[in-house]
Amino acid sequence: MRTTVGIIGAGPAGLLLARLLHNAGIDSVVLESRDRAYVERRQRAGILEQGTADVLRAAGAGERMDREGLRHDGIELRFDRTRHRVDFPALTGGRSVMVYAQTEVCKDLIALQLREGGPLLFEAEALAVEDAGTDTPRIRFRHEGREDVLECSYVVGCDGFWGVARKAIPAGLAQVFERTYPFGWLGILADVPPSHDELVYARHERGFALLSMRSPAVSRLYLQVPDGTDPGAWADEEIWDELERRFETADDWYLRRGPITQKTVTPMRSYVHEPMRHGRLFLAGDAAHIVPPTGAKGLNLAAGDVVTFARALVHRQETGSPELLDAYSRTCLRRVWQAERFSYDMTTLLHRAPGATAFEDRLQLARLERIASSRAAETDLAEAYTGFPFG
């Protein structure tokens, strides 16, 4: 097999890239190790920045998002039993975010790819990226019980942290920056309407809590728990009781309870691999960087990466200049590090570290009070949350 761009991974990054390339008249092949049903039910992020939503619309993949997604014009911060709303449009010149689950983004892009795009091979396991430093990279993969080779002009690794793409970059060329956190998120899906019409980020002396949603009828909620927590160790009523404590306010707000349909624990880490390019191999999304979920940046960073690559390749095709492709890693990393900074700030602002001192507690409250009382501080949060520019 031969193609211009070999894409490893049919998550939102790989699928969006395939769509962008198709619209630009550039052929690609997408290899995905899992089956279609797994990809379409894999629960991940649910917040799309303004720029990500705009890119999906421009790519022809925004119709159902605009019909079924939930536009949010702000978030609520809770601390010391007080509530403070951050108004995104008023602070950013009209920007907002969209609540639309990654599973739904993937469903939309898969349908478009199978109907209009190039080959999308499910249960096609990438085994290695070979000759990445040359002009003729290859992806060795296994599909339908036999090994095959995809010859490419370019390879884009959208295959996540555990994928093969990053392993093709020589260790001597790489730098890794990472931080692990001593806590995670116990997340639940519950068949109950959300208790608030926007996301609620709560800082509490017992730990962080987040109120989110998947739809007007399904709530998504999170509790800060110690790293390594077994989600099965928490009884349903125990989870609801703890959420109620951490979301407590001084007014008459109350938390709606309902049947819990899913419990998971998400570990928290920050990770960046530099560079994001080696020869004709380009890394995108979790293959190159991971952020704690507090800032809602993971999917959006991946979208920014593939938009940057697609623009650079179109520029190369139209002008003959490799300038933007050569700058891919530097361009992406500027945005990546701003998102890492914001995600770290949000995490340390709202989570109580094990053994935190009274001094550290008061600093957190002072930071939250500053956001609530300073338009400049509030604007900085709103601009970062609604998204950094692509490219």
What is Rg? 21 Å
What composes the largest sheet? 8 strands, mixed
Unreliable stretches, pLDDT < 50, 5 or more residues?
A: none
- What's the end-to-end separation, in Å? 32 Å
The total count of helices amounts to: 12
Q: How is the quaternary structure best described?
A: single chain
The shape, in one word, is globular
Task: Kindly state the number of beta strands.
Answer: 19
* Mean pLDDT rating: 96
Q: Which structural class matches the secondary elements?
A: alpha+beta
- Beta strand %: 25-35%
Which percent range fits the helix content?
25-40%
Describe the structure.
The protein has 391 residues and is α+β, with helices and mostly antiparallel strands. It is 36% helix and 30% strand. Strands 1, 2, 8, 9, 10, 11, 17 and 18 form an eight-stranded mixed sheet that branches. Strands 6-5-13-14-15-12-16-19 form an eight-stranded mixed sheet. It has twelve helices and 19 strands. It starts with a strand and ends in a 5-residue tail after the last helix.
Detail the topology: elements first, then pairings.
Elements (H helix, E strand, L loop, with lengths): L1 E7 L3 H12 L4 E4 L4 H6 L5 E2 L1 H9 L4 H6 L1 E3 L1 E6 L2 E6 H5 L4 E3 L2 H15 L3 E2 L2 E7 L7 E6 L2 E12 L17 E16 L8 E5 L5 E7 L2 E9 L9 H11 L13 E15 L2 E2 L2 E3 L5 E2 L7 H22 L3 H4 L1 H23 L7 H16 L1 H12 L5
Helix pairs in contact: 1-6, 1-8, 8-10, 11-12
Keywords, separated by commas or semicolons:
391 residues; alpha+beta; 8-stranded mixed sheet; 12 helices; 19 strands; 36% helix; globular
